[in-house]
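Whiteboard transcription, Tuesday session. T.W. wrote the structure tokens on the left side:
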């Protein structure tokens, strides 16, 4: 069981003792966001705030308390939507840095640099431009699969799980959008964990999976950009291997809740079982995500809306049902090396809800 974590067994911390979270779960919500209008969009995932401006939060005397409470809210609700943000990409970057730090990311984790980000790119290494125009030219949406499928659900993924130290939070602001279409969907990894029988859950808790983005090598060749082989936001994320082994079930260090952590985009193999068994298990887990619309939330963007999600315990999927231009800015921070704390609980268990 290489992924079970105890304080005194650093080797079990995904093998990366220097990529542990700095705080112990759960972080407590202090009430600083109670003054804002908020609405939960479904019982299990997604909360929308009206009238909350991140640029103002950055200037507030209670800045750190507000940001820590936002981290708790994002990690608890999976994804938070903030309408009509007046914020620059540089302010997004500053906010992302504070969010990840206040949520307890390891010292060694910073903002991610995507392996396909061009050296000297428009807004700096740590901001990805999500662009339908670039995508048409074969670039853009570089964190996603480029395989073409007739299933819209083929794109469900969690960001950069091929890195040994993957993402805690990511944020996307869409500033140019089609008249209709281009919605994004998120699904809750906590809720999918809660759909497993106790027997299946404890079986999966003993397993790891291999995540792999070697297809980015082809993409890099096609685009004519060399792959970024240097440090990509953590000293543990470097080189051109683009593969990592993570626990199938991980604990979110902010909530202390268990989540399923395999995704259609990058997870290729469950280890320690036969290839056939792995295929069946992965297909079953992916179906749980795509076929349970009551574990999902679908967001209809308006101009300058921003979404911030916790990549440790959600998946998301873009919708390519439009022909016009759709463009936005995205920042992705790195958290801890994924681990499973055997003492952690499921979301429903922690909230005293019936599984
Ligand atoms: O374009 C979208 O709706 C989502 C893109 C995405 O997967 C991301 O920003 O991580
Ligand atoms: Fe993504």
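and on the right, the sequence the group agreed on:
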């Amino acid at each position: 069981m290489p992924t079970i974590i105890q304080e005194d067994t650093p080797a079990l911390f995904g093998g990366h003792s220097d990529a542990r979270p700095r705080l112990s779960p759960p972080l407590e919500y202090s009430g600083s966001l109670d003054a804002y209008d908020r609405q939960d969009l479904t019982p299990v995932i997604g909360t929308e705030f009206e009238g909350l401006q991140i640029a103002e939060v950055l200037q507030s005397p209670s800045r750190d308390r507000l940001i820590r409470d936002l981290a708790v809210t994002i990690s608890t609700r999976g994804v938070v939507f903030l309408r009509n943000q007046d914020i620059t990409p540089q302010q997004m970057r500053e906010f992302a840095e504070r969010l990840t730090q206040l949520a307890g990311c390891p010292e060694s984790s910073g903002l991610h640099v995507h392996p396909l980000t061009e050296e000297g790119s428009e807004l700096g290494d740590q901001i990805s431009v999500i662009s339908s125009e670039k995508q048409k030219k074969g670039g853009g949406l570089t964190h996603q699969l480029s395989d073409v499928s007739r299933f819209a659900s083929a794109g469900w993924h969690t960001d950069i799980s091929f890195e040994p130290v993957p993402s805690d939070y990511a944020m996307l602001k869409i500033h140019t959008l089609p008249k209709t279409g281009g919605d994004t969907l998120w699904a809750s990894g906590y809720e999918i964990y809660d759909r497993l029988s106790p027997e299946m859950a404890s079986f999966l808790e003993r397993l790891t999976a291999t995540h792999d983005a070697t297809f980015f090598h082809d993409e890099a060749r096609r685009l004519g950009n060399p792959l970024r082989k240097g440090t990509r936001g953590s000293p543990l994320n470097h080189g051109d291997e683009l593969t990592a082994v993570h626990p199938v079930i991980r604990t979110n260090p902010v909530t202390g809740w268990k989540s399923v952590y395999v995704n259609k985009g990058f997870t290729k193999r469950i280890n320690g079982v036969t290839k056939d068994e792995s295929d069946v298990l992965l297909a079953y887990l992916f179906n749980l995500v795509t076929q349970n619309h009551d574990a999902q939330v679908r967001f209809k963007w308006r101009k300058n809306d921003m979404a911030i999600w916790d990549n440790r315990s959600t998946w998301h999927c873009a919708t390519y049902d439009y022909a016009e231009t759709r463009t936005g800015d995205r920042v992705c921070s790195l958290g801890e090396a994924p681990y499973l704390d055997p003492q952690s609980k499921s979301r429903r268990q922690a909230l005293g809800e019936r599984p």
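Someone added at the bottom: DSSP finds nine helices and 15 strands in the chain.
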